[in-house]
Structures
1.
Amino acid sequence: MVFKTIGVIGGGTMGQGIAEMLAARGLEVLLVEKTTDKLDRAMEQITVSLDKQIERWSLTDTEKKLILAKIRKADSLEDMAACDMVIETISEDLNAKKHVFFQLNQICSPAIILATNTSTLSVTEIAAVTTNPERVIGLHFLHPVAKINLVEIIRAMKTSDETFNRTRLFVDELLLKKSIKVMESPGFITTRLICTLINEALHTLSEGVASAEDIDNAMRIGYDFKYGPLEMCDRFGLDSVHAALEGMFRDYGDMKYRPSFLLKQMVRAGHLGVKTGEGFFRYDKDGDRL
């Protein structure tokens, strides 16, 4: 099967990035959200992202128009029936994801691959609500999607070889990204490793060993990280990091995954990072450091 039209469910940060990247690769994209307002907001943010690229001379106005023309607003989940693959990108809520896949199972023909962009949740459990679990797979894109050329492909217990092979070709040859095969385990590779680093940075900060700025500078300058672990936490969303650590702590039972108390305090205070304008650092409405 040739991939021509890809459905993207969820217009949050990851959904926006995935939709923009797919359209930039020449694919038709159907983007769906819970409400018209959320869908309009997602399209506005995609436009802002493209405008920033124009400002940096990495995109032309003509290319921007071509990308936006490839992204269509879906009226409802039923429109996903016209897609060759559907990528779900809603928040990391297992029950919510299962509900979406239960609906997709009724809407999409068995030939359509159903992918979830989860970073920590069980793809096997999500697939279990469908009658064709062999066509369900995990596709974990990393933020920012356009810049990071890595995708974790997660095989659930019943994911078929055909689904995996078609998905890997899609990632490697159509998206021109590097795919890595991951057998299902909590946090997969990237989330498991980076969240452990972030958690240790949080312990270092709460113990008064160094300031947030110095902790990040140590890793940015000393180990050539683009962002330090605390700014990464801000950009991922403190609530998302907290949820990922909680899930791994619950599944592995290892104390190294137990979320720092400082992280819990920040989430309770509503300081969630870039999305709220304040986390360990402060940000403007475009997500740039102040």
2.
Amino acid sequence: MFRNILVHIPSERPVRPVIEVAVALTMARRSHLDAVAIGYESTGTVGMLVGGGGAAIAAVVGAEQERAQERADAAISVFEVEAKLAEIAYGVRSLAAIPAEAGETIGALARLYDMTIVLQPDSSKFSYDNDIPQEILFNSGGPMLMVPYIHKGPLDTHHVGIAWDGSRLAARALRDAMPFLMGAKAVTVIAVNEEASEASSDQLVVHLARRGIAVRVQRLATERSDVQGGILSIAAESNMGLLVMGGYGHSRLQERILGGVTRGIFESMTVPVLMSH
């Protein structure tokens, strides 16, 4: 598993965190890694020329597409240097797109891969790159590994934490993360506000033991507004290198909105998180 990996290389934000994680993971698992970068076309200038002639509008659109493509190419070139040095099997794709189409494009592309690696959004800095993780989470149909923008170095999977509430999404993330769990030296189940159910954390321990995965359970009882804070505190205190959790959301008209806990993790994560929806 994870033999076919996609990484999104930001064109407007730091690229090193995702490149370092993606390249090292590809080397360790002898996988194939494809990288995609999107340069975002501005539509504002075109709007200002609505009263102009068709030739003028076409010229502006063409120039904006060229600039967007140059930004994507520049991001991909940084990745290619590292990929060649690591001597991994890789492919690259850079494209220009308007923001409204970029998420749809990469969300569909990600459906072909075992896992997609993305950079954590940074709400303090405006960038269309910030929208990509949510699009991939909800539209790829597979696991997404989100890397904190403060992260340095390869992914550390010696101690993996599982945020468990017995839900379908938690179970999906658990299955998707199985290659990491099988190779971890320590696995901790963080049982979040647990109530009696057939899919309890105690039952999960039994079932993971059948796969040879030894697990300890740490119970978290907290207000819903602080679930993400509790999970991240346990991860930091236990020196976890990876968190596994379901990615929650709900629909508002035709727009997909992140759930509260998932949004909190997006905003404040300090450790890489594998999410599935």
3.
Amino acid sequence: MQTLINGSPGTSVSVMDRGFLYGDGAFETLSTIDGRPVLLSQHLARLESACQLLKLRFDEGLVKKELFQLLQDASGSQIAKIIITRGVGGRGYRPSAESIPTRIIQLFEPTNPSPIEESLGVCITVCQHRLSQSEALAGVKHLNRLDQVLASAELSEEFNEGLCLDIEGHVIEGTKSNLLVFKNGGALSPDLSQSGVKGIMLMEMSKLLTREGRSIQTTKLTINDVLEADEVILCNSVFGVSPVIKLIQGDRVKNWPIGDFCQQAIQLQNEVFASSY
């Protein structure tokens, strides 16, 4: 791992940094290939939007400069993370208008995918932990990820991912991914207006599938909707697209093929990653 903190190599931040104290900040995680970030403009636009909502100062030019500083000698596939916190502040929740944001840019080697993830699809379950709802924060990749931490803690080694439901029982996302379900010739995407994050890869895949003539409908999904789907995929900006081949929920087991929809989604994912070459 390599890290720049406010443009300089480092490994720690102040114990009074509000990102550390309160999760007061936002972040993006993206793939890089041979030093070239994938879908960088989309990630920076979402990060800027999050910073505006949280009333954090955001300097896109400086962030890009520091990111490419870290990537200048990079090769192969790596994972970049960009974190903006409100910076150092005093005790108490009330932020100071004088706070100077902390910028943290990190570069990680990718974890090696298992054979099942790489070629045969993934096995998933349904997490018991329910996602909180907040219309104001829905879609924002803020630093408080306790919902995802608690949901991920439920996953045993047999599961690659877990589906997360909101407090009303609607399917929202995976612990680290978005999902699309394919049924009767069209694709369904969960309603993310109250919970969850609309991932950059989800938005890109939706755009490309629409270009290819696939209809995408955003709706409130239930587990039964997922179980009745013809095919299911997960997606995020790091692994791209993964077909779901099995869902286990207690005594219920559902198997899916890697059919035409999954194959098309994988081809479109390859198009996205190739655009960075």
